[in-house]
Amino acid sequence: MLGFLIYLFFIGIIAGYLARLLVPGRDNIVFLRTVVLGIVGSFIGGFLGYLIFENDINQGSIQTSGLIGSIIGAVIALLIYRKVKGDSYGRR
Predict the structure, then answer these.
(1) What 3-state class would DSSP assign to 9?
(2) Do residues 12 and 36 lie in contact, with contact meaning Cβ atoms separated by under 8 Å?
(3) Is the pTM of this model over 0.70?
(4) What CA–CA distance (Å, rounded) separates 20 from 24?
């Protein structure tokens, strides 16, 4: 369990920062929110992988994904965050 949490933390760091680099605009997000963005992105990527490939039926639709899926999911999560926040391009 501890290994899984450490895995999520490091994937969250990498995916969160790469998503912020890939999506144009300025984000005033602190480190912890960036990590959470990456972790949420990992679960979004896992869900999308489940919907597209239906490969992990035994694990179910709530699962993490690899690094690429996490980055794609984090980009989606960042765009949703911006829409909900009402700051569509990260401007103040």
Answers:
(1) helix
(2) yes
(3) yes
(4) 8
